[in-house]
Specification:
Radius of gyration: 18 Å
Order of helices and strands: HHHHHHHHHHHHH
Helix content: over 70%
Distance between the termini: 15 Å
Low-confidence stretches: none
Oligomer: single chain
Length: 267
């Protein structure tokens, strides 16, 4: 798979998302937009359909388990991935704060953001956490670091693949102010995907990061800076340490070594 082909599939996924969003809005007779859960469900439908056609076109001869990298990963690496999802809040907060200080949200954008998280019933809050914190990350990882990953890896190597997919991942979110943090997050998830040879650590990092962000938004409001500068810097240091430890443990793991070899296997 070439990067041009991967970009086309990414555009198809985003176009499918827009189609489902418009379809649901028309069906519901809504002009004010959809709630967060509905948005994530539309994303799940769009991305999974795109993933289906991608695998049919490019990976028809390989088992889906191998295409998506659904391989076992050491428990310790999964734990480190979950901790990384929490620690990554720090560096993302630093970058986002720098960008948004210079390019702040408009009052209308702030009001829309508040509305997405302004729910009172506990079952609505749980639904938002499950959708935005778990379902969204799972389908995004399956498309970007699952379906696209091994085909690009076999042709372009690890570094270019991780960088390229991180860029497509950031562009797919279509928010210029979030492009850099999305890209860096994609790099972290891509590194875990490569080092472990499994998609599960990347999914766990993504889901833990999103869940932490969603819970804080529900508790304190999406516009509130929950962590102090010192806490963000400490989390940044923790992120570097955790990534280093993850890489060293994965390099010594026979399970991860076999998984990395399976990613580049053309049979």
């Amino acid at each position: 798979m070439s990067f041009v082909t991967a970009a086309i599939w990414s555009v198809c996924a985003v176009a499918a998302l827009d189609f489902f969003l418009a379809l649901v809005m028309v069906s519901a007779g809504s002009v004010a937009g959809l709630d967060l859960v509905s948005r994530v469900l539309c994303e799940a439908a769009a991305f999974l359909i795109t993933l289906f056609f991608l695998t049919v076109v490019h990976e028809r001869e390989r088992p889906l388990r191998e295409v998506l990298g659904l391989r076992r990963s050491p428990i310790l690496l999964l734990l480190l991935a979950a901790l990384l999802g929490i620690a990554l809040q720090g560096p993302v907060n630093i970058i986002v704060g720098f960008i948004y200080d210079r390019y702040p949200l408009s009052p209308e954008e702030i009001e829309l953001l508040k509305k997405l998280f302004d729910v009172g019933a506990i079952h609505q809050k749980i639904a938002i956490v499950v959708a935005a914190g778990v379902l969204g990350p799972v389908v995004e990882e399956m498309l970007f670091r699952g379906g696209m990953y091994s085909g690009l890896l076999r042709r372009h190597g690890a570094l270019r693949t991780v960088l390229g997919i991180a860029l497509l991942f950031a562009l797919a979110h279509r928010e210029p102010r979030n492009m850099l943090p999305d890209f860096l997050g994609g790099m972290a998830m891509g590194y875990l995907r490569w080092a472990s040879g499994s998609i599960w650590p990347a999914i766990l990092l993504h889901a833990t990061f999103n869940t932490t962000s969603v819970v804080m938004a529900l508790m304190y409001g999406p516009e509130t800076d929950v962590m102090t500068r010192a806490e963000n810097l400490a989390a940044l240091a923790g992120t570097v340490v955790l990534l280093t430890v993850f890489g060293r443990l994965a390099a010594r793991s026979e399970l991860c070594t076999a998984a990395r070899e399976a990613d580049t296997n053309t049979n």
